[in-house]
Structure formats: C-alpha cells, structure tokens
TrEMBL record:
Keywords assigned by UniProt, alphabetized: Cell wall biogenesis/degradation, Hydrolase
Lineage: Bacteria, Bacillati, Actinomycetota, Actinomycetes, Micrococcales
Native source organism of the sequence: Brevibacterium yomogidense
MF-aspect GO terms: N-acetylmuramoyl-L-alanine amidase activity
Protein name: N-acetylmuramoyl-L-alanine amidase
Reactions accelerated catalytically: Hydrolyzes the link between N-acetylmuramoyl residues and L-amino acid residues in certain cell-wall glycopeptides
Record's signal peptide: none
The protein's Enzyme Commission number: 3.5.1.28
Amino acid sequence: MSMALWKGSPNFNTGRNGSSVDRIVIHYIVGTLAAADATFADPNAQVSAHYGIGEGAVHQYVNEMDTSWHAGDLAMNRRSIGIEHSADQSRPPDATTYAASAELCARICRDFGIDPNTQIIGHSDVVSTACPGTVDLQRIISETAALV
Ligand SMILES: [Zn+2]
C-alpha cells in the first residue's frame, strides 16, 4: 500500500513561502476516506490535507512541495504535511490504516529529516480541536519510529 493514489484538491497554496517541512500533523476524518475525498474536492470547503488513509487505500490531494489547508494555522500549514485517517468518535482507525500511516510517515521522515518521536504531532497540538480524536498518536509515532 505504499503508492498513494492521486486525487487532487483545489484547496492549497503553491509552494511553502520559504518554509522547510519539519512536522507531520495527524488528523481524523470523522468519516471514511470517501468523505475526505468529497470534502477536499469541494472548493467551497476551503480545506485539504496532503494525504488521506483508510479502507485499504492511501489518497494524495496536494503535492508535498505545496501548502495544504489542514492545521487551521497558516504558519504550521507551510511547515507541515497533513495526514487524515479514516475514523470517527466511536470508530478508531483499523490496523491496516495504522500500518499504512506508519509506512507513509516513515518515508516522509526519511525524505525531510523529520524525527518521528518529536516532530509527528496531533492537530490538537496546533490549535484547540477534538482532532485527531480516536487516532492513537503514540501508536503512529512508535510504528513509524520502528521503520525509520
Ligand atoms: Zn484535524
């Protein structure tokens, strides 16, 4: 499941305004990957992420060199890669989603020199939000660190 399927989104800024990528921000969709696909394809939604994972698939919406609109904070958006996970308040991610997330995060950590133990953060570490909800952030960090 290492290859992401390109979906695209109109919701992004070209480039990163000179910022280097030094964070991965973890999110939950509050729905399935199909819900993320629909939201990120809608220009009126004004939100996106670089990747979404769920139901056995990895989708990409924004190029890593560009700024996606996921963290609710422009400076953090410019310095981070945002990853959405299929889950909701009563449904945590499944094991397949965790495994795909760790694989993707490990590749990003290698490419950008990111330390998984300190530079993979939850959306709620950026702004006040319930996101990433039922996603076990420490599990993603641990599974990623084992691969880097
Ligand atoms: Zn979020």
